[in-house]
User: What shape does this take?
Amino acid sequence: MAALAQYKALALLVALLAVANWESLGELTVSNSWQFFPNEALSQTFRITTTIQNLDDWNKWKFRSAAYLRFYYPNSDVSPPYYIKVRDLPTIYEFQIPQVLASQGYLLRTPAIIRASRYLPLTPNDMFAQWNFKLEAFS
Assistant: This one.
């Protein structure tokens, strides 16, 4: 039974990746400062694509990192930070709008990212391998 449920979930995910309509919210180079994406989101389903800019830097010369993603709401509420790793393939995530905010009509939110690393806050941007964070919303 559990294997069948996992198969169905995987089949749904593959279908979603193949035929889904994804709206780009932007692509940013991750840094040590919070950066806001140029577009807001209504969706709760997102596709994140991470792209390393220089593999030698990533594999040999510089510090690796991840990112924190947060959502800022019009009423000044902020989501908890979601830890996002660099991955080889686009990955789908669900980031739910808290029920209390949804019930008040706060469905639109602005995403923002910042570098996540154990070497912060003392390590400058140029000591990290550079990578891009592309965020798309399911529509």
In short: The CA atoms of residues 68 and 127 lie 18 Å apart.
